[in-house]
Every structure is written in structure tokens, then in C-alpha cells.
Design brief:
2 helices; 5-stranded mixed beta sheet; globular; single chain; 26% helix
């Protein structure tokens, strides 16, 4: 898989939990998009997005993906995206999912206080 990062910014967060959030999003992209998937991290005014070139998440399933145990993979635990949501909420952030410009999944993490602000 390939990881592209637009820029880096300092944000107020628990370092280990933020790392876990990214790990879960990357792992999810590879598990559902394959080894050729590209994951892109981009800055937003009040947060960041993590988008991939995978197959995406159907609009009808977007409300369910954050539920504990929800998985479309045969060997998936269904906890990865639930953990992402829990980490975001613990920081006072919001997480939402849409379609990326490449047709894959895009997760927007917003409500983040940037230290450069």
C-alpha cells in the first residue's frame, strides 16, 4: 500500500491514541482495498481527512460501520472503526465517512484544535 501525506500539522491530542486512530484507518483501507490501495491524509480547516482508493463504503452502510462488531471481512473483528470513533469522541472530535474522489472511503475528523492556530 502507499501512504501520501499533504502536510504535517501539530494538533492537541494524546499521541498514542492518535497513532491508534491512524493505524486503524490504514489497516481498514488495506484490508478492504488490497495491497495496491493508496491512502491519502490531507489537512482540513478544522481537522484532517484520511481517504483511500479502495472500493468505498456504500452509503446505506455508513451509519453502521462504527457499530461494534460490524465488518464485511470474513476475518474482521468489526472493532477498528468503532475504536476510531471512540478515540475521536474522547478528544471532542467528530468523525464522518463519505466517498473519496477516487471512489474509496473518506473519513473526515473534525473539531480538532491545531497548535499552529
Amino acid at each position: 500500500a502507499t501512504l501520501n501525506v499533504d502536510e504535517s500539522e501539530l494538533v492537541e491530542a494524546d499521541r498514542d491514541r492518535l497513532r491508534e486512530l491512524f493505524e486503524n484507518l490504514y489497516r481498514n483501507a488495506v484490508e478492504h482495498g488490497g495491497d495496491d490501495v493508496t491512502v491519502h491524509v490531507g489537512a482540513m480547516e478544522d481537522g484532517f481527512c484520511v481517504a483511500d482508493t479502495g472500493s468505498g463504503i456504500p452509503e446505506s452502510a455508513r451509519d453502521e460501520i462504527f457499530e461494534a462488531g460490524y465488518s464485511t471481512a470474513d476475518d474482521g473483528t468489526g472493532f477498528g472503526l468503532r475504536i476510531v470513533e471512540q478515540i475521536a469522541k474522547a478528544h471532542g472530535w467528530e468523525v464522518s465517512v463519505t466517498e473519496s474522489t477516487e471512489g474509496g472511503a473518506r473519513f473526515d475528523i473534525t473539531g480538532i484544535r491545531k497548535l499552529s492556530d
